[in-house]
Specification:
85 residues, alpha+beta, binds zinc ion
Length: 85
């Protein structure tokens, strides 16, 4: 899962991921399967938030209004952006 990503066991915090050189989190929407990159530095979350705790907050814009409680699938931490969104 975290093939070329940073250490994920134990789950790093946002701060640790960024400082470790992996400021991008690749996620996939569990509903429409769209993959995208999340800039951890741009998230309005405390830097001590665990990366895994973000899953429920990263559903894509398109599915946000779908009415269900969705959680994004976390793919990996990445040193650079992979998808253009
Ligand atoms: Zn979606």
């Amino acid at each position: 899962m975290w093939s070329d990503g940073g250490p994920i066991d134990p789950s790093p915090t946002i701060d640790q991921a960024i400082n470790g050189g992996y400021p991008w989190l690749e996620v996939r929407c569990s509903r429409c399967k769209t993959a995208r990159d999340v800039d951890l530095a741009a998230l309005r979350r405390p830097p001590t938030t665990c990366v895994h705790d973000l899953a429920g907050r990263l559903v894509c814009q398109k599915c946000k209004g779908a009415g269900k409680r969705l959680a994004a699938t976390l793919l990996q931490l990445a040193p650079r952006k992979r998808h253009d969104t």
